[in-house]
Design brief:
The protein is built from 15 helices and 14 strands. By secondary structure, the protein is an alpha/beta fold. α7 runs parallel beside α10. The structure holds nicotinamide-adenine-dinucleotide (NAD). Nicotinamide-adenine-dinucleotide (NAD) binds next to α2.
Length: about 450
């Protein structure tokens, strides 16, 4: 079943900055982890994502996986076997029911909780982890409602625990190279960017075995907007120093009709399949424009229900040129001229230190998952400030409720709250980190 909060209607955005609720704690911007030689990790959700990310947690030095939770006993058991195979003590396993994760969060020997469950549970799990004194990293999106995003900000500030959106795409090789080039001024003054999750998931969403139940497809019966903005927004927000000098101020969204899933069902699903009871409302393609405080524009797209080769768009433009991904190409003055794209490979010197050190990382998504886990665990081990925090998690996720609200209001701009309560004006380091002196 789905927590009640996720089923109710999405509230409209607050209309101005002063509408931010009163701060209950202190800022989490620039707050380091407490240093520890070994990071003890608990994982909730061992499906496609959690069941493969566990390999990377086990591959990173200084990490022990001490507790696992999944409502499906077999998934927890095969993950536990991986821990033992990696030479670590058998982890505690929680499989009793949908609330057993609370026991994992309550353990005294867990430092960091990783949440890789369906979206319906992200908010409650992140909240429970923080209330039990744990730092928490959550798969995208970190929550589905605006009021939940504020609650996570408040909880992080009150409990002094970090609540992070584990945005692996921020650690992609291209993304990190563009980030460094952008910050070094190679694109001039930055003006615009774009990011997307255009990934044809029709087959997987109707596959009876791929996901644990139809949870992902069911979100297409609930919200009309961008259900998964983070992979596109996170990297571009980093290029533009959102929450570190600039701020996402408003979003306006439009959505196409929702036809793709119904058409796929018509052509592929047998009569009597449970999906025939569903009515899809989520736009096949949503296109959103985010305006920043400095006047820059970010375009976000989401489309998981029509044929399209995978693309996160991943583009950035400024007064000296532009980068576009899928396929990667670059055009910056003075290197390029006459309307001819240049070769992005020529800029490999700009690679982030993480990619220079880990040239061939293990795991999926071209290695960015490993780079993210390595860096996150390094920050915890060495007691560093994390590359992103609860303010970034809330900002990158805000398009979920706000694009829905904007589409319902015929494209009316929705204010994106200032989750930092004014601190966005200060520049501070983020994913474009310096290499620490210790490994
Ligand atoms: N960052 C990425 O690149 C990436 C890639 C894939 C998935 N994801 C995200 O990971 C999350 C999981 O996706 P998935 O594809 O693994 O889905 P999945 O359905 O394969 O896995 C979800 C798991 O959570 C378990 N679960 C459900 N409710 C639970 C509860 N109350 N307590 C404990 N366990 C529970 C299920 O049994 C299942 O094993 C989603 O948020 C998804 O968006 C991110």
């Amino acid at each position: 079943s789905v927590p009640e909060a996720a089923q109710t209607a999405v509230p409209a955005a607050e209309s101005d900055e002063s509408a931010a609720p009163k701060r209950q704690g202190r800022t989490m911007a620039g707050v380091p982890f407490e240093r520890r030689s070994t990071v003890r990790v608990g994982i909730i959700g061992l499906g496609n994502r959690g069941g493969s990310m566990i390999d990377l947690f086990l591959a990173v030095p200084g990490v022990r996986v001490v507790a696992l939770c999944d409502t499906v006993r077999d998934k927890a058991a095969s993950a536990a076997a991986k821990v033992v195979k990696a030479g670590q003590p058998a982890p505690a396993v929680y499989t009793k029911d949908e609330h057993d994760y609370e026991q994992l969060c309550a353990r005294g020997d867990v430092d960091f909780v990783y949440v890789a469950t369906p979206w319906d549970f992200h908010f409650e799990m992140a909240k429970t982890a923080m209330l039990n004194g744990k730092h928490v990293g959550v798969e995208c999106p970190v929550a589905m409602r605006l009021d939940e995003l504020w609650k996570l900000v408040d909880l992080s500030e009150r409990t002094r625990r970090h609540c992070m959106q584990l945005e692996n795409c921020a650690y992609g090789k291209n993304e990190m190279r563009v980030l460094r080039m952008a910050h070094a001024g190679l694109f001039g003054d930055l003006l615009h960017g774009a990011g997307a999750y255009n990934h044809d998931l029709r087959g997987l969403m109707f596959d009876p075995d791929y996901y644990e139940g139809p949870w992902r497809r069911l979100w297409h019966t609930r919200l009309r907007g961008d259900l998964y903005p983070n992979h596109g927004f996170g990297p571009v927000a980093n290029y533009l120093d959102i929450n570190r000098g600039d701020r996402a101020v408003s979003i306006t969204s439009m959505g196409t009709p929702a036809l793709g899933l119904a058409q796929y069902r018509e052509e592929n699903m047998p009569p009597g399949d449970a999906s025939w009871k569903e009515t899809y409302v989520s736009s096949d393609r949503t296109i959103s424009l985010v305006q920043t405080a400095k006047g820059r524009v970010v375009r976000l797209e989401h489309d998981v229900s029509t044929p399209h080769p995978y693309s996160r768009i991943n583009s950035l433009g400024g007064t000296r040129g532009v980068f576009e991904d899928y396929p990667e190409r670059i055009y910056i003055e003075p290197d390029h001229a006459n309307d001819e794209w240049g070769d992005f490979a020529a800029y490999a010197d700009w690679d982030h230190w993480l990619w220079k050190e880990h040239a061939n990382p293990p795991g999926g998504h071209g290695g960015m998952d490993y780079i993210m886990v390595f860096r996150l665990m390094q920050c915890v081990r060495l007691g560093l400030v994390p590359d992103f925090d609860v303010y970034d998690a809330a900002t990158w996720t805000a398009p979920v409720p706000l694009s829905h609200a904007s589409i319902k209001a015929n494209g009316k701009p929705q204010q994106i709250p200032d989750f930092t309560r004014g601190e966005w004006k200060k520049s501070r380091p983020g994913t474009d980190s310096e290499k620490p002196s210790e490994p």
